[in-house]
Amino acid sequence: MATLLGSEFSSSGRKRRNCNSNIVTKLTSSKITGKGFSRGTQLPGGLLQERDKPAKWHGIPDLLQKLYESSHPNSDLSYAHAYLKSLSSQLSMEAMSFVTEDRKTAQESTFPNTYTFDLFGGVDLLVEILMRPTLTMQKKKPKMNDELVKDCLSILYNCCICTEGVTKTLAARDDFVLFLFTLMTNKKTFLQTATLIEDILGVKKEMIQLEAIPNLSGLVQSFDQQQLANFCRILSVTISEPDVGNDDKHTLLAKDAQQKRNAGPSRAELNQVTLLNIPGFIERLCKLATRKVSEATGANFLQELEDWYTWLDNALVLDALMQMATEEAEQSSTESSDESSLATSPLRHRLPQSMKTVHEIMYKVEVVYVLCVLLMGRQRNQVHKMLAEFRLIPGLNNLFDKLIWRKYTASNHVVHGQNENCDCSPEISFKIQFLRLLQGFSDHHENKYLLLNNQELNELSAISMKANIPEVEALVNTDRSLVCDGKKGLLTRLLTVMKREPPDSSFRFWQARAVESFLRGATSYADQMFLLKRGLLEHILFCIIDSGCASRDVLQSYFDLLGELMKFNIDAFKRFNKYVNTPEKFQAFLTQINSSLVDSNMLVRCIVLSLDRFESQTEDIKVMEVLSECCLLSYVARVENRLSFLFRLISIINVQTLTQENVSCLNTSLVILLLARRKAKLPFYLNALREKEYNEKYPGCLLNNFHNLLRFWQLHYLNKDKDSTCLENSSCIPFSYWKETVSVLLGSDRTSPCSIVSYIDEPYMDLDRDLLED
């Protein structure tokens, strides 16, 4: 504050300081209370000029007063524009330092000019000037000068990034936010408008309703491809569900309660529907995502790209630089025919040759993100049909080697977490969004075979024929005109780069998730063999056992992938035994599994289910051979080991801590008991849980916890069609048997050998009676 109010401490100085302080205090108070001065321009001009130098206001209040006086309705705005330009030059320097230097937050830095501008009502005045044409009663709305509008928008954006609270103030004005969208129809003011809207929507408390934007369909259809790509940055805020973070609101208990309160679709879901109803919208996004760019050359490309990203905040800023460069080129060509003058100009000297490639990558990040969100929303089947029709997958396949996964070393990259919104380079962001798109596209959907080419589809058919099993219906129904072109399909290309990825690379997590999604759903032997023949199982085992990978996220993704790859597949278990061929290797594998059952429980479930199926195929010589030789199957076949898994799975979760990440532990524990019930061994397992409690000196705790978990399971899954289908498909156990088993376990008859209550002594019954009754 001292910077704003002056720092003289003489007798006369104190008076000046007190006067300055009073002015600032009164203006600040009026902003909070709404009483007193409505704007700083109401103060006498002489007083503002007298106090300007001691307070270091740099003439901003005086310029604002002149701007106010020259911007009345029906006045000549050329004078106002001149004052605006003077203000803009002072404020833009602070904004530039914010973007190019340390990128500090507004709270950590001091930006006296933008603070003074806002304090004396500059922000409100610019909003008033911009919206003035909407307030006229005339049928023909007066048109404002484009340069004047651009300067107003730029100053507002500078204030947003440099002065705390300005963005939230603008976001609270719904009329202004909706008005900004109307300015996007003008290509000359598009960039400035889009930048400001993006900043405002990022802090807006309530998500905007796209349906409320005047003529949204016409607006979007008027955009060229560059504008549409930038518009995707804005759309991403409007179609994504708010991030609830990692607090207790993230638990399934809280999520289910929230869904009951909000039975209807969310604003994000409504906005997704609004976008899908815009003619040609998805088709244009597919074209943007798959259009080719000129390849960047030079060994220093990646480093050059990384260096630029340290200060290029987003594609909109980059657009501004490109626009400046173009204008400079045009100016230079008129002033001089000497081409060297352009080459030696300061801006051109600072722009690297690879900027166009960076430009395109940053566009694609935004476009692919929007497609990802739409693909995972309630309208998934509609989106899937359109993405297939507009050949998104073949288009991405053609870009894979040249743009998405070029052969540049990534060893100097730090490991990036699994958060899709992590603050990383455009190159890394693009790869992550691409992998998320593949994951969403393949997951439980018959269109997953579009990731292959015709030759690879024929290979799947041949695998089924050799094994004497029918082809999967989805494979038979695949439209061959929509699959990948070239020698390799997208899935095969992904496997190739996956096996080359360094051990500590964060891409491993996303790659494994994308490949796993291809296998998820009803188990397909042909799909598994297709991947086994390409060495995927050996690669996964190397990563788990031999690579020294310490990332829990990456290990979890590899455990999940291994489970889907091996489930019910006797050849996979045979390959496993061939790779894990020493006691030391097997112990290292078990150590990784046991170090975190939350991460590895899906693999445990796969082994338990597979063992159960293999034990029913005793007439098959090959199966019997693998059963007798495979160390993994032998380990799980021992009852004490299955019980050990069961004890720990129930112990590491409770209803209050259940999330989408760890609810699989509950379902894996249930699978063990489902199979036990099939063999009439359920009482044996329940009694073992009771004995475990007493041996550990906490009678009732384990069984009461499990009882509460199963009560929650009923509440959660009996209202979740998709989740119940997933459970049935992944386990090959009818969901009716899941429900029946849970009902039996929760039975109230204390004489029943299959109900949990029969194994809890009366004094320890129902420790958490009211847990689910809120």
From TrEMBL:
Any one of the GO CC terms: Cul4A-RING E3 ubiquitin ligase complex
TM ranges: none
GO molecular function per UniProt: phosphatase binding
GO biological process: ubiquitin-dependent protein catabolic process
Pfam families in alphabetical order: DUF3689
Compositionally biased intervals (Low complexity): 331-345
Chain segments carrying region Disordered: 328-348
This protein's name: Transient receptor potential cation channel, subfamily C, member 4 associated protein a
